[in-house]
Amino acid sequence: KCLSVILANTPTDMQKSNYEWERLQGNTPNDRFFFKHQCRLKNVPDDLVSAFDHCGSIWVGTGVVAEWKACSPSDSLTCENGNESGNNLCLGMPPFALIRGEHDFVTHSCTSEWKSILGDALVEEVVMEN
Fold this sequence. Notes:
The chain is of the alpha/beta class.
């Protein structure tokens, strides 16, 4: 049984996320954008360097999921205990921790719909400072 779910930097709409990326980047050079919105450490940790070096070629970037948009699991289900469809609590769904960085390119605009999709009572958003 799943007791909880963590959504880390997970937008509800990839088109919105791509728009935010472009809006934040503007005319900023790639290295400054990376430092401000992806890794704010002076020295990039070896594990992060390794992750970028080994990211593969199929799931790179957002092109493969450009049209993805989150929807509620209850949109196509009804609950056995008689509660009306559209209530994810009645589906026995676990709580969700939505984590994002204060300066991340996946902004509040990109994640704010999770509460309406999954249910306000199931989602707690945590913003890591700096």
